[in-house]
Design goal:
Structural class: alpha+beta
Number of domains: 1
Enzyme class: hydrolase
Number of strands: 12
Strand order of the largest sheet: 3-4-2-1-12-11
InterPro entries: AP_endonuc_1, Endo/exonu/phosph_ase_sf, Endo/exonuclease/phosphatase, ExoIII-like
CATH superfamily: Endonuclease/exonuclease/phosphatase
Shape: globular
CATH class: Alpha Beta
GO molecular function, one term: metal ion binding
Cofactor: Mg(2+); Mn(2+)
EC number: 3.1.11.2
Helix content: 10-25%
Length: 267
C-alpha cells in the first residue's frame, strides 16, 4: 500500500501556528507533498523543518516569501530532483520530485496567473514547458518499470464540475478555455498520459473541492474550486483504491485556504 497526501499550506509558518503540525502528526501517509511553503528552511522551527519520522526535501523559491515546495517521505528517497530542467523555473520553488521504490513522486505549484498581466504570461510559459516534461517523466518511468505521481496545486479547474461558480469564472485565470485545454492534454492517454485519480474515484459529482476563498462564506457554502490534483501514470492510477479531500469540519478548524488531498494505492 502507498498513501500520499498533498496540500497547499498557504505559508508554512502561518499554517504551523494554526494546526499543520497536529495534522502531520496524525497523518498516516507515506508521502506528503507541500506547496506554497513561502519560507526558507532556516526560517522554520526545528519541529517544522525536520519533523520526527520524516525525510524532508525542500525546494524554496529564490525570491523570498514566494512559492516553495517540499516532499516529506517516511523512508529516505533514492534520488531527488529540483525543477524540471527549465532555467526560468528551476529555482522558482515550483517543482521537486523524489524517487522511491517503484514510484517517482513530484510536488507541483503551478503559477496562479491573472488575466492581462505578466503573471498570466509566466503561467503560460510554465505550462508550455511542463507538459513536455510530464511526457518525459511518464516515458522515463515506463522504461525503468516505475510509475509516477505528480501532486499539487495545479491552479486550473478542469471541468465545470470542478468549481461551484463556473459561469462567473469563464474569463478568469484558473478556468480559461486554453488552460482547461492544456490540462485535458495532460490527462489525454495519447498525450500527457496522466490520470486525475480523484476524478476517477468520484466521476459523477461536483467537486470534491479543495480550495475556498477566505472571502465571505465560501467555505460554509462549499463554494470552492478543485485545483489540487494527484495525477498518476495509468499503472499507478489503476491501483488507486481511495482518493478524497480532507475538508475541515468547520471554518474555524482550517489551517490553510486549501484542504489536503489524499490517495491510497494498493500493491
Amino acid at each position: 500500500m502507498l498513501k500520499v497526501a498533498s496540500v497547499n499550506v498557504n505559508g508554512l509558518r502561518a499554517a504551523a501556528g494554526k494546526g499543520y503540525l497536529p495534522w502531520l502528526a496524525s497523518c498516516e501517509a507515506d508521502v506528503v507533498c507541500l506547496q506554497e511553503v513561502r519560507a526558507q528552511p532556516e526560517q522554520l522551527t526545528e519541529a517544522v523543518r525536520a519533523p520526527e519520522g520524516w525525510h524532508v526535501q525542500w525546494a524554496p523559491a529564490a525570491t523570498k516569501g514566494r512559492a516553495g515546495v517540499a516532499v516529506l517521505t517516511r523512508r529516505a528517497p533514492e534520488a531527488v530532483r529540483v525543477g524540471f530542467g527549465v532555467s526560468e523555473f528551476d529555482d522558482a520553488g515550483r517543482y521537486v520530485e523524489v524517487d522511491l521504490p517503484g514510484v517517482t513522486v513530484g510536488s507541483l505549484y503551478l503559477p496562479s496567473g491573472e488575466v492581462g498581466t505578466e503573471r498570466q504570461e509566466e503561467k503560460e510559459r510554465f505550462m508550455a514547458a511542463f507538459l513536455p516534461y510530464l511526457r518525459e517523466l511518464r516515458e522515463r518511468a515506463a522504461e525503468s518499470g516505475r510509475e509516477a505521481l505528480v501532486c499539487g496545486d495545479w491552479n486550473i479547474a478542469h471541468q465545470e464540475a470542478d468549481l461551484r461558480n463556473w459561469k462567473a469564472n469563464r474569463k478568469n485565470s484558473g478556468f480559461l478555455p486554453e488552460e482547461r485545454a492544456w490540462l485535458s492534454r495532460v490527462l489525454d492517454p495519447a498525450d500527457g498520459g496522466f490520470v486525475d485519480v480523484v476524478r476517477r474515484q468520484h466521476p459523477d459529482q461536483a467537486g470534491p473541492y479543495s480550495w475556498w476563498s477566505y472571502r465571505g462564506r465560501a467555505f460554509d457554502n462549499d463554494s470552492g474550486w478543485r485545483i489540487d490534483l494527484l495525477a498518476a501514470t495509468e499503472g499507478l492510477a489503476a491501483r488507486c483504491v481511495k482518493a478524497y479531500v480532507e475538508r475541515a469540519a468547520s471554518h474555524a478548524e482550517r489551517w490553510s485556504d486549501h484542504a489536503p488531498v489524499t490517495a491510497v494505492f494498493g500493491s
